[in-house]
Amino acid sequence: MLYPRCLRISLFLLISASMASARDLALVSNKSNAVAGMTVPDLIKVCKAQNKHWPDGKPVTFIMRSPSAPEMKLLLQKIYEMPEGEVSGLIVTSNHGRPNHPAILVVSSDEELVNKVASLPGAIGVVDVYSINSSVAVVKIAGKLPLEPGYILHGN
C-alpha cells in the first residue's frame, strides 16, 4: 500500500519538474529594428549567425542565455537542432574576429537579455515570455505571437 502511493508521488514530482522547465519563449527585438516578423528559416539563420546584417544595414546581434541553461533546451531542440556543446562551439566560431560587435551574445539572465536587446540597435533575442517589458518589441515567428497555438517556441 505504501509502494503505490510513493510511486504516484514520485511520478507527480517528475512530471511537475519537467513541466516547470518547459518554458514559453519569445523572440524580442530592439525597437529601432524594422522587423515585425520572421520565418523559421530566417530565425535559424540569425541564431546561427548566418545573417550578418538587417535590410537597413544594421549589424545583427543575436542575444541568448547560455546554451547550458535549462531555459534554452527548447531553443536548442527546435531552432539549433544540435547539442549544447555544438552550439557553444558555434558561438565561439561566429564571434571570432568580431570583438566590438559579436554575432551571438550570451547573457546570464532574462533581465540582462531584455536590457541588452533594448540598448543595442540591431539586436534580437530569445527570452522567457514573462520577462518581456515595454522596452523591446515582440517579433512574430511564422505569423504567430508567443502563446498562440502553433508558436514554435511554445514550451509544452
Task: Describe this entry's structure for a reader.
By secondary structure, this protein is of the alpha/beta class. The chain has a single domain, classed as Periplasmic binding protein-like II (D-Maltodextrin-Binding Protein, domain 2, 3-Layer(aba) Sandwich), CATH 3.40.190.10. It contains 5 helices and 6 strands. It has a 6-stranded mixed sheet. The longest helix is centred in the first third of the chain and has 20 residues. About 8% of the residues have low confidence.
Helices and strands in order, then pairings?
Blueprint: H1 2-21, E1 25-30, E2 37-38, H2 40-47, E3 61-65, H3 73-80, H4 84-95, E4 104-107, H5 110-119, E5 123-128, E6 136-141
Parallel strand pairs: 2-6, 3-4, 3-5
Antiparallel strand pairs: 1-5, 1-6
